[in-house]
Design a protein that fits this description.
Layout: E1 4-6, E2 9-11, E3 56-57, H1 68-77, E4 91-100, E5 103-104, E6 107-108, E7 124-133, E8 148-156, E9 159-166, H2 179-186, H3 197-205, H4 211-217, E10 232-233, E11 238-241, E12 247-256, H5 265-274, H6 278-289, E13 294-303, E14 329-338, H7 343-348, E15 361-363, H8 367-383, E16 451-452, H9 463-471, H10 474-488, H11 493-506, H12 508-537
Antiparallel strand pairs: 1-2, 3-16, 4-7, 4-14, 5-6, 7-8, 8-9, 10-12, 11-12, 11-15, 12-13, 13-14
Helix pairs in contact: 1-8, 2-3, 3-11, 4-9, 10-12, 11-12
């Protein structure tokens, strides 16, 4: 029986899913009413009618805990690699300090948040920062096109706060349901183990919300020159809560004092030919020499409501809040001043999570943030172990007392001095641990809405992407077109056409230039293929010796 072939991948013509050479599926292939062999299901066999959205209260969120479909999907995704991180595997890190300004812009910061690390001018909080690439492996070149992770662990007096973000201020998707699919498209093909532009753009061309990210990632902004001269962003929307329990929406931004530098693809290739660890080396050697990199932490603040006057949803992480409407307000300065003493113990075992917040900081209803909050810490328990928070790099620099016991690699017991060690539960009348007194009211948002699986109302997928395209300098636009054309040149025509259409929706010039660029790259590829054949045809016979 002949196989149908597409790009070297073979699919049995009978549609059974039974692979050649005995590798592949061999389980029961019966389908329920309305299904066929291509119907997406959970591992319980439940047909999936909506693989795009979490179940949320109204289409803005928040998400609810009974999202079984999402939890099955994301918890399996978190366990796909042992022990290397599934994402952010290649990293470098350093210790430092965050110094608070005591204000947000010109206003008292207590107006917006009761978080103690911000409230006093000159207050210093120790930090550890891990920079990383996202989609590539632990020993991959640091010149590859990729978002860069920018994760900061604050060891505050109230416990740890992890601000986990990227160098770019937007993301590909706005709903956590799609995160495993996004990363799978950027990882190597499960058959031939190669990353391809076709896989990446097959996902993107069916995900219009990704176009804003594409406008950055495939331009020079997709290859920062180093970690010191790189912006950082919390990406997602969070909340600040004051002493009265009132909240505002907030976005975090790190601005490097040494400026921002990016590389074109050609420049990055020249560097990679000489040194594929250049960013790690740059960070380490500058700190060693005493050239301590600094970033100012700035925030944008918005009232906690839907803001229907905007043409986008403020919880949408594929969007940027306009700086002219929501100015960047400085709150403090971070300085990195100490290199790790052991890479594995500190950088590799450092574990971050978006759910790690201190009093005065809170979650927004951002659906990506809520999905990340489960996924990140779940990944660390799997990757490093159930007791990963007992490792020195992850442990808070303060009192810890819990009723959590045992588990793999228990380093010590989190008991308090004088505690009855027979009691590992709460409440108890036998000298066990007690709840802390509450010093300020909880933030208590009110929700009214149906529990749904829906996309947000104000998608507006193309406006900010088009604006970014027009804001690029000429050399940045040239690099963007060249990089996209090269990645799309050998993709299926349907993917090429969809990407041209999406780019045209962002800006007609972008679409036209991409069409021309793909045609030019395909012509070059044809000549390369001809050269392969000519090598044999033009070669001279030689006698063996």
């Amino acid at each position: 029986m002949a196989d149908e072939t597409h790009n070297g991948q073979h699919t049995p013509a009978d549609g059974t899913g039974t692979a050649v050479n005995g590798v592949g599926t061999s389980h029961d292939q019966r389908t329920a009413d309305g299904e066929n062999a291509q119907t997406l299901t959970t591992r319980q066999g439940h047909p999936l009618t909506n693989n795009q959205n979490l179940r949320t209260v109204g289409n803005r969120g928040p998400a609810t805990l009974e999202n079984y479909q999402f939890i099955e999907k994301i918890s399996h995704f978190d366990r796909e690699r042992v022990p290397e991180r599934v994402v952010h595997a290649r990293g470098a890190g350093a210790h430092g300090v965050f110094e608070a300004y005591g204000k947000v812009g010109d206003e008292p910061i207590e107006k917006y948040t009761r978080a103690k690390l911000f409230n006093t001018k000159g207050k210093e909080t120790p930090v550890f920062v891990r920079f990383s690439t996202v989609g590539h492996g632990g020993h991959s070149p640091e010149t590859l096109r990729d978002p860069r992770g920018f994760a900061v662990k604050f060891y505050t007096e109230d416990g740890n706060w992890d601000l986990v973000g990227n160098n770019l201020k937007v993301f590909f998707i706005r709903d956590a349901m799609k995160f495993p699919d996004l990363i799978h498209s950027q990882k190597p093909d499960p058959v031939h183990n190669r990353q391809t532009g076709e896989r990446i753009f097959d996902f993107i061309c069916n995900t219009p919300e990704a176009m804003h990210m594409v406008s950055f990632l495939f331009s020079p902004w997709g290859i920062p020159a180093n970690y010191r001269q790189m912006q950082g962003s919390g990406v997602n929307t969070y909340k600040w809560v004051n002493k009265d329990g009132d909240a505002v929406l907030v976005k975090y931004h790190w601005e490097p004092l040494e400026g921002v530098k990016n590389l074109t693809a050609g420049e990055a290739e020249k560097i990679q030919a000489k040194n594929f660890n250049h960013a790690t080396q740059d960070l380490y050697e500058n700190i060693k020499k005493g050239n301590f990199p600094k970033w100012e932490l700035r925030v944008q603040i918005m009232s906690d409501d839907e803001h229907l006057e905007l043409d986008f949803d403020p919880l949408d992480d594929t969007k940027i809040w306009p700086e002219d409407q929501f100015p960047h307000l400085p709150v403090g300065m971070m300085t990195l001043n100490k290199n790790p003493e052991n890479y594995f113990a500190e950088v590799e075992q450092a574990a971050f999570g978006t759910g790690v917040l201190v009093d005065g900081l809170d979650f927004s209803d951002d659906k990506m943030l809520q999905g990340r909050t489960f996924s990140y810490s779940d990944t660390q328990r799997y990757r490093v172990g159930a007791n990963y928070l007992q490792l020195p790099i992850n442990a808070p620099k303060k009192h810890v007392a819990t009723n959590q016991r045992d588990g793999q690699m228990t380093y010590h017991v989190d008991s308090a001095p004088g505690q009855n060690n027979h009691v590992n539960y709460e409440p108890s009348s036998l000298n066990g641990l007690k709840e802390a007194p509450r010093s300020a009211p909880d933030h208590m948002p009110q929700y009214t809405g149906r529990l749904v699986r829906q996309t947000i109302d104000r998608e507006n997928n193309f406006k900010q992407a088009g604006e970014r395209y027009r804001l690029h300098e000429d050399w940045e636009r040239d690099d963007l077109i060249s990089n996209m054309s090269g990645a799309l040149a050998d993709a299926a025509e349907v993917i090429q056409n969809k990407m041209i259409e999406l780019c045209t929706n962002c800006d007609p010039d972008w679409g036209q230039r991409l069409r021309e660029g793909i045609a030019e790259k395909k012509s070059m590829m044809k000549k390369e293929e001809e050269a392969v054949q000519q090598a044999e045809e033009l070669a001279h016979d030689a006698k063996p010796y």
